[in-house]
Amino acid sequence: MRNAHIPLVDRLVITPILEWERQAKPGNCTIDLRLGQRLRVPRRTKLDCLDHLSDDYPRNIGRYKDDHHVFIGDYFVLHPRQFVLGETLEWIHLPRSLGAYVIGRSSWGRDGLVIATATGVHAGYSGVLTLEITNLGEIPVRLYPGLCIAQLFIHTVLHDKGVKPALSRFAGATSPESADAAADEKDIIKRLAVLRGLVAPKPSE
Fold this sequence. Notes:
Number of strands: 14
Largest sheet: 4 strands, antiparallel
CATH superfamily: Deoxyuridine triphosphatase (dUTPase)
Order of helices and strands: EHEEHEEEEEHEEEEEEH
Number of domains: 1
Radius of gyration: 20 Å
CATH architecture: Distorted Sandwich
Distance between the termini: 63 Å
CATH class: Mainly Beta
Structural class: alpha+beta
Number of helices: 4
Low-confidence stretches: none
Mean pLDDT: 79
Shape: globular
């Protein structure tokens, strides 16, 4: 078997590829990614805002979004100015020598559909990818699971041979995932607020 000598951890894996010639067009430097079946949909609630510095943030983010499963052959209607989290149909593994990033396809972008995945995909990542999907157009758009909706650009990365690449917090994802964007910054922001006298220090401070 070809490449059987290469350890699995050092292989690039993207599965399933439904139509190779369509998703990995000859001469292109990208692979098209298809929309998966699970969507996480924000809803209007009694929350006045999402405060990442609040101790209630983990509980509030669960109240803020509903999970939807869209069956193959069915569709989800994305309304103007609506935002959802989607997932790729493909499960991806990047070896330690490769990184990647995801962008939307321009043909969808010209209809107002934006795939705003600003994050890169780190070397060593395994899992499905979360897509940040927004309809900036003036009319609703139907999203069908299985449609090619984004592109994966893959590139080589350089790192010290003795140091293993750090894994993303999303490694191993099997569904669209939210995250606390301020998780690593809460303490310093709160300390700055105390220094400026905007909030009272806690007894332990």
